[in-house]
Amino acid sequence: MSESDCLFCKILAGDIPADIVYESETAIAFRDINPKAPTHVLIIPRKHIATINDIGAGDEAVIGSLYSAAREIAKAEGIAEEGYRAVMNCNEAAGQTVFHIHLHLLGGRSLSWPPG
Ligand code: AMP
Ligand code: ZN
Is the overall model pTM greater than 0.85, yes or no? Predict the structure, then answer.
């Protein structure tokens, strides 16, 4: 999928609305449209990277910034101390449906392990 067809690039461009909760130089985060927990936020890099497999050697700072965003958003949502999950699916077998990497930040309820 090219960047021009990418749903999350369209959200980044402001062409599709989203409930944005966080913005930095390298990342933005918005509420999942179909939340699986009381807090379900998607944290994405501004750079289009399709899957974890496509992360390059020069992308470490960008990927690290997704976790800094997770820390800040968890604090703002009031779930930092009780706990939360930050997870990224890669390709079909793991359930990836949008091919612009995104960290799911899930919290506000007990989360079972292992996931299905
Ligand atoms: P994944 O299955 O890991 O690729 O996650 C994709 C996520 O994007 C799902 O949890 C969807 O509910 C979510 N999603 C799809 N379209 C939108 C949208 N327009 N705004 C916010 N979240 C979306
Ligand atoms: Zn994209």
Answer: yes
